[in-house]
Amino acid sequence: MASALQNLSTYDESNIPDAAELTIGIVVADWNKDITHALYEGCLSTLLQHGAQEDKIHVVQVPGTFELPAAARILSSRENTDVVICLGCVIKGETQHDEYINNAVAQGLVNLSIATGKPYIFGVLTPNNHQQALDRAGGQHGNKGVEAAVTGIRMGAFYRQRPTRQGIRF
Ligand SMILES: Nc1c(NC[C@H](O)[C@H](O)[C@H](O)CO)[nH]c(=O)[nH]c1=O
Ligand SMILES: CC(=O)[C@@H](O)COP(=O)(O)O
């Protein structure tokens, strides 16, 4: 559903597991910093609100959205990482550059999820202009970082519930 119809900061709190046990990676792109840092603030406050422990949240900054999958993979290679949340904002320019980045990152994160068996969350805005980005980074359509955090908690908790063999998770 489009952000105009489904506010990005609105969710059913009764449906969110406790995040206290989760080890969470967050990767934040520096490009369009005013936007991505607002996504980060929304994401972090939502994680903490649902019980996530600060010492189990590992944050890295990367130059741009294109770098999100590589950094996410490095974070997730730590055995105890349950989920990696990726935050970025690619604003359309004059050329198709944005499409190459967005498609590569979306596909890259899906591929990583399948290849590693761990969840990677696509907290990337793909607006046509700066105003559309502001509207989705704490503005009239809510905050994509909040949505990414809620999705991260749900998927991270699901990952932790995966079956075990002889007490060892696989
Ligand atoms: N134009 C935007 C970029 N471009 C930079 C790339 O993400 C990348 O860092 C560069 O191509 C080197 O690999 N990144 C964004 O996050 N947002 C943009 O609008
Ligand atoms: C969205 C981008 O990557 C941007 O920096 C490229 O802009 P342009 O298409 O005008 O070169």
From TrEMBL:
Family to which the UniProt record says this protein belongs: Belongs to the DMRL synthase family.
Ligand binding ((2S)-2-hydroxy-3-oxobutyl phosphate): 94-95, 136
Binding annotation for 5-amino-6-(D-ribitylamino)uracil: 31, 65-67, 89-91, 122
SUPFAM superfamilies xref list: Lumazine synthase
Residues annotated as catalytic: 97
GO cellular component terms listed in the entry, alphabetical order: riboflavin synthase complex
Natural source organism: Neolewinella lacunae
Pfam families: DMRL_synthase
UniProt keyword annotations, A-Z: Riboflavin biosynthesis, Transferase
Keyword Transferase listed: yes
Function field: Catalyzes the formation of 6,7-dimethyl-8-ribityllumazine by condensation of 5-amino-6-(D-ribitylamino)uracil with 3,4-dihydroxy-2-butanone 4-phosphate. This is the penultimate step in the biosynthesis of riboflavin.
Gene Ontology BP terms: riboflavin biosynthetic process
NCBIfam families: lumazine-synth
Protein name: 6,7-dimethyl-8-ribityllumazine synthase
InterPro entries with a match to the protein in the record: LS, LS/RS, LS/RS_sf
Reactions that this protein is recorded to catalyse: (2S)-2-hydroxy-3-oxobutyl phosphate + 5-amino-6-(D-ribitylamino)uracil = 6,7-dimethyl-8-(1-D-ribityl)lumazine + phosphate + 2 H2O + H(+)
